[in-house]
Design brief:
The protein is of the alpha+beta class. It has one domain. It is built from two helices and three strands. Strands 2-1-3 form a three-stranded antiparallel sheet. A hairpin with a 2-residue loop joins strand 1 and strand 2. The longest helix is centred in the first third of the chain and has 17 residues. The protein is flat.
Length: 76
């Protein structure tokens, strides 16, 4: 089961680094199936909101930077 969760989180991460999320600048976002399902200033509240809406899923949580940043990823 751990592999499945890792794959889901990787898909959400890949989506996040490519998606235009500036409308959430400075906020925490919860991502489920490559969609933002909750956002706000408090990471714990955002996560709980996502889990309430999608109890069978494992949301990914990310803090959207206030400005554009460069994300580098090493291939393994």
């Amino acid at each position: 089961m751990k592999r499945k969760n890792t794959a889901v989180l990787s898909k959400n991460y890949e989506w996040y680094i490519k998606a235009y999320t500036q409308r959430y600048a400075g906020k925490w976002i919860a991502i489920v199936e490559q969609r933002v399902v909750a956002s706000g200033d408090d990471a714990e509240k955002v996560y709980r909101e996502a889990k309430t809406s999608y109890p069978e899923k494992k949301p990914s949580l990310a803090k959207v930077p206030n400005k554009e940043i460069l994300v580098l990823r090493a291939e393994t």
